[in-house]
Amino acid sequence: MSNTNALTLYTINMSHYSEKIRWLLDYEGIPYVEQALTPAIHTLPMLLKGGRGQTTVPLVQRGSKRVQDSPRIVDWLAQEYGPLKSLPAESLDEIIAIQRRFDAIGKGVARYLYLPGFAHKALILDIWTQFATPWESRIVRAGYPIIKPMFKLKLKINTKHVAIAEQRIDAEIKWLEARIKQGRYLVGDSLTIADITAASLLAPLACPEEHPIYGTSEFREKMAGVAKLWADSPALQWVRDIYAAHRGQIWQVMPNAA
Ligand SMILES: N[C@@H](CCC(=O)N[C@@H](CS)C(=O)NCC(=O)O)C(=O)O
Predict the structure, then answer these.
(1) Are 162 and 241 part of one and the same domain?
(2) 175-223 confidence digits (pLDDT tens)
(3) Measured distance between the N- and C-terminal CA atoms of the chain, rounded to whole angstroms
(4) Residue 19 phi/psi, 5° resolution?
(5) Distance 55 CA to ligand 1 centre (A)
(6) CATH number (domain holding residue 225)
């Protein structure tokens, strides 16, 4: 019999929005089981489970309750498992506003890295199939010539949108640099969901060594190599510092394959 109180987190290994919720759960000590989905194969299960016309991860499920979309998940976790130390009531509005601004650049970050990343088919396929069953791996590898253009279309991975993404990321990096001059944490004097959101959504650019995908030398060179203009910025150094100080070990328990 399944345990209806158990929390399942559906993710994709490379997803930075998934990392945001994984980090929040780890930081708050909320027990969960991670179910890692294979890109492309994730589409139908997430569409059906989410019930919102969206195919995105992360999604959490407890019994028959399913919540998709990271800010909605944060709200639901606070309601069900709160009070959360990463969401202090006295600064809630400010924290949520910062969460919103970094959530808004997540897709741009993915767009920015995938444009050059797609030149490295073997790396992309290895990452995409890390948790794939043998048949999923065969489908994704054989279907790559179709999946890749569909993915590029869906995520608007083209030079025009990548240029817009670069400007937006740059603006947020500058905002972050000004903010961290005021203190180590974005709000107050301890880690909040504002820091977790900013650090996890910028992590694919900052490549903290704690992250099992972004921290590899191959990812750094082939995907994040384009982010040279920010590589040594105080903002991305802050991301690495926050990971080093607060992230702990990612995947203490390896995710289940779907
Ligand atoms: N607003 C969503 C965005 C999530 C998102 O874009 N997730 C990406 C992975 S980082 C995804 O699932 N992409 C595949 C898809 O859209 O089907 C959230 O905050 O959870």
Answers:
(1) yes
(2) 999 999 999 999 999 999 999 999 999 999 999 999 999 999 999 999 8
(3) 19
(4) -60, -35
(5) 7
(6) 1.20.1050
CA of 245 from ligand 1 middle (Å) equals: 26
CA distance 42 to 223: 22
In a domain? residue 1: no
Q: Which atom of ligand 1 is nearest to the CA of 16?
A: 10
Tell me, in angstroms, the distance from the centre of ligand 1 to residue 205's CA.
Answer: 17
The ligand 1 site (C-beta within 6 Å) comprises 12, 15-17, 43, 55-58, 69-71, 103, 107, 110
The residue among 211, 214, 207 whose CA lies nearest residue 250 is 211
Helix/strand/coil (H/E/C) assignment for every residue in the chain: CCCCCCEEEEEECCCHHHHHHHHHHHHHCCCCEEEEECCCCCHHHHHHHHCCCCCCCCEEEECCEEEECHHHHHHHHHHHHCCCCCCCHHHHHHHHHHHHHHHCCHHHHHHHHHHHHCCCHHHHHHHHCCCCCHHHHHHHHHHHHHHHHHHHHHCCCCHHHHHHHHHHHHHHHHHHHHHHCCCCCCCCCCCCHHHHHHHHHHHHHHCCCCCCCCCCHHHHHHCHHHHHHHHCCHHHHHHHHHHHHHCCCCCCCCCEEC
Per residue in 136-150, pLDDT (tens digit) is 999 999 999 999 999
| Domain assignment of residue 99, given as a range | 91-246
The two structure tokens encoding residue 231: 């590589």
Q: Number of C-alpha atoms within 13 angstroms, CB side, residue 171?
A: 11
- Is 25 inside a domain boundary? yes
